[in-house]
Amino acid sequence: MRKNKIFAMAMLAIFTLVLAGCGSDAFNRKFIRKKKQAEGPPEIYNIQPFEKPANTEIYQHAFLYWKSWESELLNALSPSGYPRTANILKIQDCIGSAVSSLTDMESCLNEQKAMELDFYIEELRRIGGMLGRGNLSDSVLSRARNDVGTHKRNVDIRFNYSRIKNDIKDDNSRPE
User: Where is the signal peptide (predicted)?
Assistant: First the structure.
């Protein structure tokens, strides 16, 4: 009996020593906090002054964004599946972004063309007001889809960059 106790204690001691020696590296990695490294000097960035792009570039980007938002609006007004419902938040977001792009385009044009474009901005806001009432029945969606399609065609034809490039303000008249 006494030999068994001594043997068991010896085995336990050997087992403990083996475990302590084999797993000490993993134990240290897992449970001991790593020392913080000293932080070096702060990074220095080479900051250059902002140069505003040319009006032609602003107009072309705004026109491209307007066209994509108007296409997205047409897709949002053409729901598929059952039940046929439209996402009013997506429609409002598309209209707001399209109006914003048209306003950016308007700021690059001379006064006469800006007044023409202002008519189309108000027309798109009117369509947004019609859709914002919450009555999105099939007849309202169909009418809005037709109005937006007509609006898109008219603006695309009348304010395409190839037709409007002579009516863009020169860069010197732009406020800083």
Answer: 1-20
- Classify residue 8 as exposed, middle or buried by CB count within 10 Å of its CB (0-12, 13-18, 19+): exposed
How far is residue 121's CA from residue 81's CA, in Å, rounded to a whole number? 31
Inter-helix orientation angle 24-31/2-22, to 10°: 60
Residues of the chain falling short of pLDDT 50: none
The CATH number assigned to the domain with range 55-173 reads: 1.20.120
**Tell me, what's the pLDDT at 45?**
80
Q: What separation in angstroms does the CA of 113 have from each of 90, 116, 132, 165? A: 30, 5, 29, 11
Beta-carbon contacts of residue 131 (< 8 Å; ≥ 6 apart): 88, 91, 92, 95, 140, 144
pLDDT reported for residue 84: 66
- CA-nearest of 109, 112, 116 to 168 is 109
pTM: 0.69
pLDDT of residue 22: 57
Give the largest CA-CA distance in the chain: 111
